[in-house]
Design a protein that fits this description.
By secondary structure, this protein is of the alpha+beta class. It has one domain. The protein contains 2 helices and 5 strands, in the order βαββββα. Strands 4-3-2-1-5 form a 5-stranded antiparallel sheet. β3 and β4 form a beta hairpin. The N and C termini lie close together (7 Å).
């Protein structure tokens, strides 16, 4: 399912439902994590973009591929 708009700096984000299901993460901190995008890092073109995220937690990775994220707004619609 495509995002309604591209992830941008300042967006509040969460891991997408599709990513969580594909990795079997149904419990714990990751499904409930919310963070703010601090910067976007393009890698070799537009197809690969890494978001640097302030999760307010040291236990979550600070950099995540944008394909594995949704905005908190989109999450409300089950994306």
């Amino acid at each position: 399912m495509a995002q309604s708009k591209p992830i941008q700096v300042g967006d509040r984000v969460a891991y997408s439902t599709i990513f969580l299901r594909s990795t079997g993460q149904y419990t714990g901190d990751v499904p409930f994590a919310r963070g703010t995008v601090v910067s976007l890092l393009p890698l070799g073109g537009r197809a690969a973009v890494i978001a640097e995220i302030d999760w307010h937690s040291d236990e979550l990775p600070p950099r995540v591929h944008v394909a594995n994220l949704v905005t908190v707004e989109d999450l409300a619609f089950g994306k």
